Amino acid sequence: NAGVTQTPKFQVLKTGQSMTLQCAQDMNHEYMSWYRQDPGMGLRLIHYSVGAGITDQGEVPNGYNVSRSTTEDFPLRLLSAAPSQTSVYFCASSYAPGTGANFGPGTRLTVT
Amino acid sequence: GENVEQHPSTLSVQEGDSAVIKCTYSDSASNYFPWYKQELGKGPQLIIDIRSNVGEKKDQRIAVTLNKTAKHFSLHITETQPEDSAVYFCAAQGAGNMLTFGGGTRLMVKP
């Protein structure tokens, strides 16, 4: 199993540009989520999904969209990048609530 | 919503000593409490977890305790080794299946 994979590893955007961060898992996990990690602030939940076709907002959803058309994939879209979205983004998956989440290696995004 | 506070933010110990990291949470409905270890440049890795119907759980040199009445839980690492140096995060999961993380503790184990 590859576990949770994320692409790209690094990305630099200009303000106003759009992009999609890719996340895939091969463990047949129903639950997937996106977090951002900023210095001194731990990990904050952006969006999550409890299964294909179902998504919900987390703590910091503004500026981000998600969709879940398959169990395996959970892309995160930035429609109009802002410098405040400079961060490290982690995707995670888990079998069910109350089970440990597997995290991907992260995408380091810089918005200039 | 849930609020998780973690202390200390940095912890330096001598190799072989014990390390304790403490977290408090606000939502009494939270029922799952995982701990993650994050090494530089990598994603967090689950190291141990505890559910609300258990007061303590141990896995080799790592143990976690939970006090539901006081709404706090702690990570205990015994016989620390240099490879234990990393950032550790606690988290709490309650209503809505959302994980809320603490701010992290940077543990440094000096050889």
Provide an overview of this structure.
The complex is a heterodimer of chains A (112) and B (111). With 112 residues, chain A is mainly β. Chain A has strands at residues 4-7, 10-13, 19-25, 31-37, 43-51, 54-57, 64-66, 76-78, 87-94, 102-103, 107-111. In chain A, the strands form 2 sheets. In chain A, strands 2, 4, 5, 6, 9, 10 and 11 form a 7-stranded mixed beta sheet that branches. The mean pLDDT of chain A is 94. Chain B is 0% helix and 57% strand. Chain B contains no helices and 11 strands. In chain B, strands 2, 4, 5, 9, 10 and 11 form a 6-stranded mixed beta sheet that branches. A 5-stranded antiparallel beta sheet of chain B has the order 1-3-8-7-6, with no helix packed on it. Classes of the chains: A mainly beta (112), B mainly beta (111). Chain A binds chain B through residues 4, 31, 33, 35, 40-45, 48, 50, 56, 58-59, 90, 92, 97-98, 100-106, and chain B through 1, 6, 31-32, 34, 36, 42-46, 49, 51, 89, 93, 96-104.
Unreliable runs of chain B: none
Order of helices and strands of chain B: EEEEEEEEEEE
- What structural category arises from helix and sheet content of chain A? mainly beta
Number of helices of chain A: 0
**Strand coverage percent of chain A:** over 45%
Topology:
The complex is a heterodimer of chains A (112) and B (111).
Chain A: E1 4-7, E2 10-13, E3 19-25, E4 31-37, E5 43-51, E6 54-57, E7 64-66, E8 76-78, E9 87-94, E10 102-103, E11 107-111
Parallel strand pairs in A: 2-11
Antiparallel strand pairs in A: 1-3, 3-8, 4-5, 4-9, 5-6, 7-8, 9-10, 9-11
Chain B: E1 4-7, E2 10-14, E3 19-25, E4 32-38, E5 45-51, E6 56-59, E7 62-67, E8 72-77, E9 86-93, E10 99-101, E11 105-110
Parallel strand pairs in B: 2-11
Antiparallel strand pairs in B: 1-3, 3-8, 4-5, 4-9, 6-7, 7-8, 9-10, 9-11
